[in-house]
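PT: before anyone asks, these are the final sequences, not the draft ones from last week. 914 residues across everything. Please model them as a single complex and drop the result in this thread when it's through.
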Amino acid sequence: MPAADAAIDALRERIPSSPILTDPDVTEGYRRDFAKDPDAGRPLAVVRATSTADVQEVMCWASENAIAVIPRGAGSGLSGGATAVTGGIVLTTELMQDIEVDPVTRTAVVQPGLLNAEVKKAVAEHGLWYPPDPSSFEICSIGGNAATNAGGLCCVKYGVTTDYILGMEVVLADGKAVRLGGPRLKDSAGFSLTKLFVGSEGTLGIITEVIIRLIPKQAPASTVVGTFPTVADSTQAILDITRVMRPAMLEFMDRASIRAVEDVKRMGLDVDAHGMLIAQSDSPGADCSREVEFMAEAFRNNNAADVFTTDDPEEGEAFAAARRFAIPAVERKGTLLLEDVGVPLPALPQLIERIEEIAAERDVLIAVIAHAGDGNTHPLIVHDPNDAEETARANLAFGEIMDFAISLGGTITGEHGVGRLKKNWLPSQVGEDVMDLTRRIKSALDPQNLLNPGAMF
Amino acid sequence: MPAADAAIDALRERIPSSPILTDPDVTEGYRRDFAKDPDAGRPLAVVRATSTADVQEVMCWASENAIAVIPRGAGSGLSGGATAVTGGIVLTTELMQDIEVDPVTRTAVVQPGLLNAEVKKAVAEHGLWYPPDPSSFEICSIGGNAATNAGGLCCVKYGVTTDYILGMEVVLADGKAVRLGGPRLKDSAGFSLTKLFVGSEGTLGIITEVIIRLIPKQAPASTVVGTFPTVADSTQAILDITRVMRPAMLEFMDRASIRAVEDVKRMGLDVDAHGMLIAQSDSPGADCSREVEFMAEAFRNNNAADVFTTDDPEEGEAFAAARRFAIPAVERKGTLLLEDVGVPLPALPQLIERIEEIAAERDVLIAVIAHAGDGNTHPLIVHDPNDAEETARANLAFGEIMDFAISLGGTITGEHGVGRLKKNWLPSQVGEDVMDLTRRIKSALDPQNLLNPGAMF
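LR: through. Structure below.
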């Protein structure tokens, strides 16, 4: 492709300080995110942008040459939002990692490549806290968090990424960089464009900076853990808790997840239980122990065995870590198709029950973990990609779970985004009229369809 | 206008169950919102919609006849967002007042005409709380709150309207009704269209239902009040507090506001003080008294006299009510041009100082109240509309305050919206590129410019 080569050479001249990778052995590592999309293409190049100005140059160049640009954060996405396309380039913001914390306004200006954990650490030095905590917080970037409106474990009380993004700088399809919002807690001037770009998965622009809202550091959390003889008992305990109080965490693991974690970690988890709940309260003072005792009582009222409470944050964190470890633990049993369906809370028991049936019907292992307090579940569908027949069954289960979540008034994705893996289900969730609205906005902002083509639509 | 009359007659036949008012004596009451826009036009009719289906019919009819539609909630807006235009109609949702509370998912489905206070009351019956609390909460509607992304006093801790809107039903320019979002705490499926419509001031669609997020009822608040010898002392106290903790309320009144309230209420406020702060903590248990004592200490450290604390919620509410009463109290001195500028917190002292200078330079009374904890101020510019010269000076001050807020990295509107009164300043706040982006979205969704033409743009 000499024309393409010439175009890449021209790009090199325009952005001398941003590395451009073209060696196929190197670009191979940028073809897929954690969704391991089997349909990933081969990019012309990978641009490791080092500045907003260079991202602007890339988009000007892409517009002139009609070349698709796949924006990429840390590549930890789970829906194929950063899958490379043949003939396009991948633009990663992984090298852009500055952060400036302003403790007086309790905000920080952050470049997109900084990892979520690094953001948390930098603001903690000022006694501040950035709540959103995807399980992947040690390896996912704040830019990717903003692009997917990422969630996490504490969102049940503290909200999701969009609740903490006050403003951003974003490079549009035509190469213009605009500043949206700012370090102001209140701003009703014009459309809420910041909020529109959060969760737009790189299809409307490339986020080159975010302004995040911070809150005073979290009080030490107390934890309650319990195992249940049936899934129904554990989901009833969830409802008994959430109708009265807001836990700082309320996580569910089913038997397959418990066993997968216990296989590796040897924590002494009850491998005969059908459900485990891990809940936390971070309310201050006496309220904390009152809330933990209330939750422990809700566990016991629903037949929990081994109800364990602790006010030692490290001991509590060990259980949260076990829950976060569930995905890698289950992954040892095979390749995962990772679901992210959510439903209104009262429908949670129905959803988990139906997932068990689908696993049986399709004869695949499905381990279920859930941010149970907000109705967001992660069924992990295990399969061997070299077994075409099993893979086909896993894919059927993947679709059936989304179909069922939609039928319950739920969502196909609570926090991972639509990407390429779930886009065929988006119309049946939101309806054709909303798809039309979505396409009109996309066309208005990216008429050449240069930005992340194939994702979401 | 026989053609217009015929069109209205045709509309009557299409929506027999929604009253259509055409008597000029009656429609007069719908020509302006609380901004009292002097340029208000004379509408062909006022439609009091009673259902989503009728709003759809109205928009189909408006599209066919190219007639502008001014959406209107309770008419309590302060930026002229609901000013009528000649040749158009006003569509008010004031008759749509249903609410359905779901205590298990802690959400409510609400029609737009229900007043904010009525929403609070309905959910309180289930032990729940809808936080956003504009000072006008007893007379403003939830639909208008959503359309302007309204704020209030508790937003410093609890966030603004957009943080509580999980979904909505909205009628588009072409008459289609779409459902966005839903009763799910997490949803990353597709663009965040719900958030785009919040704060779009009726220029993109007509909100016919909102799904709001509720939280458990607020703990009883303790209050601390203090008066300061200088504005600078009070703003320093604000910064000393917000850098450490999150009060549940942190309100400022300047001397002119204190005096205006005292004139009417006779509460014994110190009319020689140059600033008064009213702060609250609603943290549970011992944390509440600890926070109140911390704030009282910050007051004293900044030369406050008469620092008064109370854990009696009713006594505290009397001070909050005094603060909310400041606007009507100042209004007794003349007609108000009501500002809503916000700045990053450290710039608050500069802003208030400059407002005092502008008042002196332009020889108009400007009383300043502020949601000080989030940097959002309401300078109230008093003038006599029958005095053309004074009105001109007031208008100059109005613009100069916005210009100065913009120069400090602030916003022209923290919570009231742009409407018609502030639209000339929007481009200088957000820049031409963002205006272009905004116009592209507006054109994509409302190509005929039927929805609230003249507002925001």
